[in-house]
Every structure is written in C-alpha cells, then in structure tokens.
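Pair request: fold both.
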Amino acid sequence: MIRYQQLVIATGADPVRMTDFKAPGAELPGIYYLRNVADADAVLAAVEAAKAAGNKAVVVGGGYIGLEVAAGLSMHGLEVTMVFPDTHLMARILTPELAV
C-alpha cells in the first residue's frame, strides 16, 4: 500500500477533436471524447444505446486511450472498428514489429 497526504493526477493533455481537422460531421451527436469521469459516464450511456441500435462502435485513434476504449467497448459486447492515421497501433511508442 502506498500512503500519501495529497495526490495529484495531472494528465496534461487535451483530446484531439474531430473539429480540429475540420472533419465533416464532427459536430454530429454520437461522437465522444474521453478525458474525465463525466466523459466516461457519457460513453457508458452510449454503449447501451449502441446495443439497441446495431451493437457496433467506431473508435478513432490507435494510441493507448483508443486501445483501452476499444477493449472496454468489446468487453461490453460491442463490435468495434478502430480507425487511426498511422501504419500500426501505438505508433508513437512501438515499432511496427512490436505492434503486431
């Protein structure tokens, strides 16, 4: 057990949003970003809606958070498709050989 008097978790990051790329449809409902508990609650509510509407989800991003979200959605029974701009998953930290 680790004991502490105060704990600060500082991720220091802002999500990359679809609007940053001026992607068509970036403002449509059903697009979620995950950075805090409220975001996670919204994703969980969307999981239930997705189950009723075809049981499918798309995760944009092949980094750590994208992989974690995809795994979680899959564990909730959704068929997940991942879309990412790199040649392999976690391209910022893994070589193509390690990412296979």
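--- second member of the pair ---
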Amino acid sequence: KETRTVSLCAYQPEYCTRSSTVNYDHLTVDQNGYSSGGLDVDSGKFTCPSSGVYMISFFCSVDITHSLGINLQIQKNGRDLDAGQIISRISSDYNYDTAVNSAVKTMQVSLDLGEELSVFMNSGEIQDVLFCVNSI
C-alpha cells in the first residue's frame, strides 16, 4: 500500500491584525500527496486532505519594545483547541532598548477529511511567523 504524506509550512514576516486568523506570505514547504486539501496562505487555513493524526507547529518572534505580549489560539474548525493557546508576556517593569522574545507551540491533532486548522490572533504583534502541518 502506498503511503501519502502531507508536509506544509507557511511563513509570514510580520502580522499585527488583532481578532483575526493569521494569514501567510508564502509556503516554504509544499508537499501534499493528495489532490485536495492543503494550506491556503490567503485564508491561513489548513484543510485536511485525509483523516489521520497531524503534527502542527507554530513559531513566532515578538519584538517586546513594541508589544508586551501576544495571545494566539490554535483552532480546529473555528473553535479553540484544548491546550492550543500561545501566550508570551513580558512585565512592563522591564526597560529594553531592543529585545525579542519567541513563542512556540507543537501538538498532535486528530483530523477528519475536510476539517480545518488555523491560528487566531487575539492580541499582539508578531514577526517571523512559521506555521507547519505534517501527517504522522
């Protein structure tokens, strides 16, 4: 039996639109062994091409001279996933001329054909954003 795989990563240099789904500038990895599904950079949504378990990873940098924190949420079909929150906060007492913090979330998610994954930004400003989805 032939095994098909999915390995997709999308990049966004900067994102600061609050209360919205993060979208992306371009795909850095685009390997989808199926004729359907994939990661739409404009909508920021991954549509599952085949039922199974997927490893998702999200990384971003936070310039803490402009933002004291971020609050994002990984969503499945528009609903927050348990343990899908991505938070990074810095105390306002700190005095930095330049400083960068980062936030990372990796988790496994069981998906059925056609279900969607995305990252929703509640607040903050993020840079060097990378969102990856891989079948396992």
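Observation on the second member. The longest strand covers residues 52-63.
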